[in-house]
Amino acid sequence: MGVQSITPILNVSDIGQSFEWFEKFGWKRSFSWNEAGLIGDGEAAAGGNEHGPAGFGGVCQGKATIFLCCGAQGSRGTIMPAHPGDDGTDGVWMTWWLSSKADVDQFHQIAIDNNFIVTMPPTDEPWGAREFHLRHPDGHMFRVSCGLDDK
Asked: What is the CATH number of domain 93-147?
């Protein structure tokens, strides 16, 4: 017996906008759902279908999955961090582990190019990780990281 995986659920204000935000970093839409059931691939996942927009969905990248729930299941971040030192924020915090320092720097550049909120630039930390802090539009915080030994 043991945990096989864990899937966080983020409370978001707009599924479609969150899909687009994650897609900038290479995440893919895995599914979207409204009260009538799954919204098909041929339909606009963000706009929904004749039964309305998606209220729940998922994004995935490799073995990683994040669920997105519109207006329920948790809370959104409301406190804007002051840089440096963004520990006073709320919302969900999690870490994306990448393969290399170059990947961390590339993800940082994607964030900058898209005018996303970066609350801490890429930094080599004394605990052996290179990371930057990225804020989702609904206030969730991501530590985008790799080990310092990762080339």
From this structure: 3.30.720.110
